[in-house]
Amino acid sequence: MAIARMTAVAILLACAAVFAACTMRWPLVGDPAIMHYVAFLTAHGMAPYRQIADINLPGSFLVDSAVMHTLGGGALAWRIFDLLLLAAATLAMMAIGRDWFAGLLAGVVFAAIHGADGIFNVGQRDFVIAVLVLAGYAALFRATRGGAAGWVLGFGLCAGAATTIKPTLVLLGPLVLAALAMMRRRQGRSSHRLMAYGWVGWVVPYLAMLVYLERERAVGAFYRVMTGIAAYHASLARHSVGYLVLHSVSPLVPLVVLWILLEIPEMRRAVSWERLAMLMGLACGVFSYVSQGKGYPYQRYSFIALLLLMMAMDYVAATRKAGWVRALGWAGVACLVFLAPYSVWRASRYDWRYTGMVAALDDDLGRLGGPSLSGQVQCIDTVGGCYNALYDAGIVQQTGFLYDEFLFGAERSPAIAANRQAFWTSVVADPPRVVIVVEGLFPSGPPGFAKLQLWPEFDGFLAAHYALYDEVTPARATYWWARKDAPRSYRIYVLRNAGGKPQAGGRSEKACTVWNELRPENVRRAVLHECPEVTTMASLE
Prior knowledge:
Layout: H1 2-23, H2 31-43, H3 58-70, H4 75-97, H5 100-116, H6 125-144, H7 151-163, H8 172-186, H9 192-215, H10 219-227, H11 229-234, H12 241-248, H13 253-263, H14 273-292, H15 301-318, H16 323-348, H17 357-368, E1 377-380, H18 386-393, H19 414-429, E2 434-438, H20 456-465, E3 466-472, E4 490-495, H21 520-526
Parallel strand pairs: 1-2
Antiparallel strand pairs: 2-4, 3-4
Helix pairs in contact: 1-5, 1-16, 2-3, 2-18, 4-5, 4-6, 5-15, 5-16, 6-7, 6-15, 7-9, 8-9, 8-14, 13-15, 13-16, 14-15, 15-16, 17-18
């Protein structure tokens, strides 16, 4: 048995090392890139919710802001943060599981699955939540195993902080604390100190969030966003409950089957307090995944992390027993050990060097002036990569409208109508010098640039006052997760001459501006025939 454990440990440590090495240079893309950009905009004076129409809770971009001010704002810093989270998750699992081998087994497999899910999932919000949940349980069990009562404060803080990132685990703290109070009462022991620490810890993150919103004068705006566009987003692209339940364990189906077989003899035994608390965490994790409804892999992380740990604990415990239970235990351990290198191999195949349209737009923005374009650019995009490029170039967008799904969605939605009106008022009063439209509409809109037709007024505004400067389609697909994504195109529009511009003042007075030193053939084709004089970027400064 000792030889088998040491062999498994060697494989797991090798997998962890290879995983860290082959993923260290992964780029910053997807949702984390948007959160970084929100933090970037707030650092440049834009107020969240009042000026930035963001649907995420403050904890989401405050995490990014903290990382940017400590480790740095680049992709490498975010990757280091992700690896530190994985290390913290593994240490928490080792503390929870009592047996360090079970915790190491679950932690490395969790890291490998996280990597196999793809580059989009680095530092995802639900991943941070999963680590907070694990850390919270480690603190809670430290207290109930004879440690100081103050450790329960750590559980409350972690459970509350997780809810300030996403509200879907709001029941975890109250349920576990209520179960703890009932357990102590049955034992004839007081729970007052534990409850005081737990509830104070749970409330503190909410108070901190309220103070932050009040400081930004955004309490009312936060409420309007949560009941408006955030509620609208929650209704989009939802899967059936059956689909979500099935996919919640999709990477672990054989292991779950073995685990159920292993648990059949244990069903008549009393459930321990720690087991009950973890089962509550599993239930809250499933609820979080199902309630979000989108079925994205990262949204199941809080559930997957606890499930892996419970299975690893039970498999390792079964290896110390006899008969078929021992055989099932070793079979489960072997499956987990195999899953680690397999998942790391999948993660190592992703093509992090090629970033598709992000790289092309980075190049365009750099030659167009880079940071000097701040306050003069508007992206029409959500997760396509436009905000990645603005962040890379250090460009502050002209407005705080970051999600095209709230501009080109169903007009019958009051939230969409209000968002359109606010955006329309902003761009007509002061038209941005450059508009970048990325194809597609997140999360389930029409392909290509057909989304523009969903808002005819804005489509007509572009046609009347802007010239198509260029349309770029990257040469090949990106390979950042389980499948290759087709190349995503983008269009660059520039403000046209005074005869075709809105008569509002501001930057629109420089309406004949194009960048003739870049692609002269495109300038002549799209702009020159409409402008009596073509100026360069330098003449605008």
